[in-house]
């Protein structure tokens, strides 16, 4: 079990679970990141924040803390 934060650049992974509570989880889901969706990691900033991903054709930037709440396979 690994998180989106541990995913290497250029990889496409499938979301298996979202951890976290309330508004944080809602914000992630509002971005279109839900269970079963594929996420392509485009770019990771040198210090790991932000992580740029493509989800459902949209390019998004995620904070490191948010990426840790997304469990992928």
Task: Give the structure's gist in a few sentences.
18% of the residues lie in helices and 40% in strands. It has helices at residues 22-30, 64-67, and strands at residues 2-3, 12-18, 38-44, 51-55, 58-62, 70-72.
Description:
The chain has 2 helices and 6 strands, in the order ββαβββαβ. The protein has 73 residues and is an alpha+beta fold. The longest helix is centred in the middle third of the chain and has 9 residues, at 22-30. The model has no long low-confidence stretch (mean pLDDT 94).
Low-pLDDT windows of residues: none
Helix content: 10-25%
Largest sheet: 6 strands, antiparallel
- Give the SSE order as H and E letters: EEHEEEHE
Shape: globular
Indicate the radius of gyration in whole angstroms. 11 Å
Content of β-strand: 35-45%
Give me the oligomer status.
single chain
Mean pLDDT: 94
Write out the strand line-up for the largest beta sheet, numbering strands in chain order: 1-6-2-3-4-5
Query: With helices defined by DSSP (H or I, 4 residues minimum), what is the helix count?
Result: 2
């Amino acid at each position: 079990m690994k998180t989106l934060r541990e995913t290497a650049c250029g990889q496409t992974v499938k979301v298996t679970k979202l951890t976290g509570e309330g508004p944080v989880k809602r914000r992630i889901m509002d971005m279109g990141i839900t269970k079963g969706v594929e996420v392509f990691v485009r770019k990771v900033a040198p210090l790991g924040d932000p992580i740029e991903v493509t989800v459902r054709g949209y390019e998004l930037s995620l904070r490191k803390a948010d990426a840790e709440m997304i469990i992928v396979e």
